Amino acid sequence: MKLAGATTAATAFAGTVGAADEADYETIAAQGQVIRIGQGETFENKLIDLTTGDSVVLLVEGGNSTIRNVGFEGLHRGDGFMISITAPSGDVLIENVYLGDGSTKEGESFVHGPGAVFYHKDASCNMTFRHCNVQGWPNNGFYCSNTASGGSAHFDRCYGKNNGVSTYRVGGGDDEIVDSVAYNDDTDYGPGWGGYTEAHGRPVWVWPGDTVSIENSHFADGPYPHAMVLRGSGTAQMSGGAIEGNVQGDGLERTDVSSSPELSVPDGTPTSAVEAASGGASDSTTSGETDATTDEDDTEGEQLLLVEGDSADVTRYEFAVDGSVEQATTDGATIDSEDELGDGSVRGVVADWKDAFRFEGELSSLTVDGPGRVLVDGEEVDPADYGEELPHELEIDGRGAPTSYEITVDGTIELDADEDPDDEATTISGSTVQSSVTDSTQEFRFSGALTDVTFTDGEAAVFLDGERIDPAAYGDTELLPHALVIDGSGTDDPTSYAVTVNGTIVKADPGEATIDTDDTIADGTVRGVVDTELDAYWFAGELGDFSLCGNAAVDVQYNARDQ
C-alpha cells in the first residue's frame, strides 16, 4: 500500500456521516491514496473510480466504525487490497459494498496480485460483512483467515464469484457465513490471471482454528477442483443451503445440505458500483444504527493485557483481575498451554515471545519477574502500582518434632521476617529455600507458582495463601528448561521443519494461536509447518537432527527459564 498522501475519513470527507438519499454520492478518482477510517468513524456513499488505472485503499484502523454504500467502478489494475482492516478491537461493519468489476495485474501470478478485502494479522476486531458483492479478484475475495488468531468475521447475504485463491477465507471459531453465495464459472478476467487453474479459487477455505458456522449458503466449484477446502485441522458445520463439487478435508459436518446450489445474488446486495454508492440496494432495516455501533455497556471494562518478553532473559508474570479473563492472540501473541488461568488470576512465563489476555473489570494485582514488560490497552504499566511485588504467602508450621524441608517456586521467594535468614538457619538461593522447624512457624512471600515442597526429615503443616495444602500434590510437573522458536512471521511462503531431541519436547503454544493440531510429536521428534506465524516448544536434553525447508527464523534458548 502507498501511505503517502493518506487522508482521514473524518476530516477529508466531513459531513458525509449519516444515511444519504438515493443517487446522492461523491465520486473519488483513484490516485494511489489511502483513506483512513478511525475509531467510531463512518465512510459512506462513495463511488471509487478505478478507471484511472490507479488504486485506492480504505484502511480501517479503529473499531466501532462503518463502511457503507461504497462502489468500486472499473477493472482494477494495481497492487494490494482495496479494503484493509487493522482495527485492534471493537466492531466493524462493511455494508452494501460493490467490488464486482474485478482486478488484474499483467505479468504477475494471482498469488502476488491484488485482493478485495484483507483482515490483517494485527487486527482483532469483530467484522460484519453485509450485502457485499466481490468478483474477479486474484488474491482472495475476503482474506479473513487471520481471525484464527483473534477477532471474528460474519458474512451476511454476501456474493462472491471467480475469486482467485478463495472467496471466503476464514479460520476463527466465531466466524459465520450466513445466506451467502460463492462459485466459479468460465469467466476469464485477463492476462494477470494465468488461465483457468489460477483464475478460480476455493469458494470457501477454512483454516485451522475453532469450528466455522455456515448456514443456508450456496457454493459451487466450477473449473476449480474443490468447492470447499478445510486446511489441516480446519473444521466447519454447514446447515441448510447446498454445495456442488468436492470437499477437501474431513472436517465438514453437514445437516440438510443439498447438492443443487442457487447461485443468484442475494436480495439486497448491489449489482453495480453506482447502485452501491447510491444506497439503492441497501437493506432498509440497516440504514440507521448498525451492528458496528455497540452500546457503551457492551464494551465497558473490556481491556487487553499484553506481556512482552525479552530475549535477554525469561520473564515470569502473574496478575489478577476482578472479572473474567481469557487468552488472546493479539499482536502476534501465542496461546501457551503452561499459562494457568483460574478465578480471574493468571500466571505464565515468556522468553522472546508475547502472551496476551482479554479481561473485564479492574487489574487488581500484577507481578513481573524478569526483563519483560506489560501493556494494558497499549500503555505500559508499572507492576508496583498493582499490589505487592511478592503476592503469595507460604507458611511452614512445625508440629513439635525437628523437620527439614526444601521449597521451590517458579519465581522469587523471600523470608517474611525481621530476622536475617542466616539467623533462622535458612538458605535462600534464587527460587529455592532450605530450612528446618520444630515447634515454630516460618513464613515466606513469593511470586510465581509453588512447584515443589519436599520434607527430608519429619513433617509440618503447609499453608498457601491461608489455605492448608497437601505437599505431595506439588512437584509432579516438570518445567522443561529450554526454548525452541520457529518464526515464519517474516516470510511469504510456508516453512516445514523436523527436529529431534534426546529428551522431552512439548508444545509451548498449541491450538488456535500458532500451532496446527496436525503438527506431530513422537519419540522426541517434532514435525510441523509454519506459514506467516510462530511455533514454540519447551524441551529438555540436546538437539539432534534438524531439517528446515523454507525461510523461517530459528531461535534456540538453553536454560531459558533461569538464565
UniProtKB/TrEMBL annotation:
It comes from Natrialba aegyptia DSM 13077. InterPro entries: Pectin_lyas_fold, Pectin_lyase_fold/virulence. This is Right handed beta helix domain-containing protein. It comes from the Archaea. Coiled coil: none annotated. Residues 275-291 have a biased composition (Low complexity). Residues 239-300 are annotated as: Disordered.
